Amino acid sequence: MRHEIETLQHTALQEIEQADSLISLDAIRVKYLGKKGLLTDILKEVSSLSVTEKPLVGQWANAFKDQLTQHIDSRKKTLQRIARDAQLEQEKVDVTLPGSHRSLGTLHPITQVIQTVTAYFSRLGFGISEGPDIETDYYNFEALNIPPHHPSRDMHDTFYLNHGELLRTHTSPVQIRTMTSQAPPIKMIVPGCVYRCDTDITHSPMFHQIEGLVVDSHVTFAQLKGTLEGFLTAFFGDDRLVRFRPSYFPFTEPSTEVDVMCGQCMGKGCASCKQTGWLEILGAGMVHRHVFESVGYDPNTVSGFAFGMGVERLAMLKYGISDIRWLYENDQRFLGGLR
Ligand code: PHE
After folding, report:
1. Whose CA is nearest to atom 4 of ligand 1?
2. Using the 8-state DSSP alphabet, how is residue 205 labeled?
3. Which of 74, 196, 256, 319 sits a CA distance of 20 to 30 A from 59?
4. pTM of the model
5. Hey, what domains does the chain have and what are their CATH numbers?
């Protein structure tokens, strides 16, 4: 019996040592210690032995059982560690590799220009206002001294909606909305979307404008000139001269268009300024007395100036963009290049 146990012990320990996977190790456990295992059989036999043999053989068999269990446990730990090491090796991360690059993006050039312009005028004490994109004929045209038959409506063809509403063609209706709801003094700047039936490389059916309005008791044309000259010099740089040309807008009198010296040729004349040396930047003028009358202000006691400029045009001139459509395509290669 002793010999039998010792032989079994020898082969069992050898098998455990050679087990190369947790599965084969478990098979060994079942082979010896399972319900019908070899050692289990021996332990069963012990009960039928004589009183003198029983304790001795029982001891051997139990010692063998303990040893077997211990060896299986320690082999199990070794195999688990080997398996984990192999897995770690496979999933190894090289923390010294450079990370994958994610571009943070930038503010859109239109947003950048709006922020630059509004920040400049905020420093001069202008408030920022907004108005609806969907307007009525009254706010967009009539109250601005543009009656139904007026020829200047031709330049403001737009998208008409039901119930006589339309998509505003300029930010000037916000002048009317503001003046009808508050008394002077007013100093405000109005960024927003505007719409016109117009499309080519410098025009888009939807674009942005920034309107300015100053109304008080003694506002002068000199103040208009000083304000706009100051802004344009800050925006384009003081090497770019600014000039005022007489012009016409139904809601201002006198009216002016303001040009900035072409940055490509510095006034000499080139293709981008159509050989004139100048680029038209904004429209402005002293608020027309009919406009004051339509909002209930007394034109004999208040005066004011207004101006309006195209944001896309400012962006295109500042960044040298030749086609307006680039601004709406959201191409990262284009937007990233403007940083
Ligand atoms: N609203 C005019 C336009 O869109 C621009 C402008 C605004 C002109 C204010 C004068 C004063 O053409």
Report:
1. 170
2. S
3. 74
4. 0.71
5. 2-91 (no CATH), 109-336 (3.30.930.10)
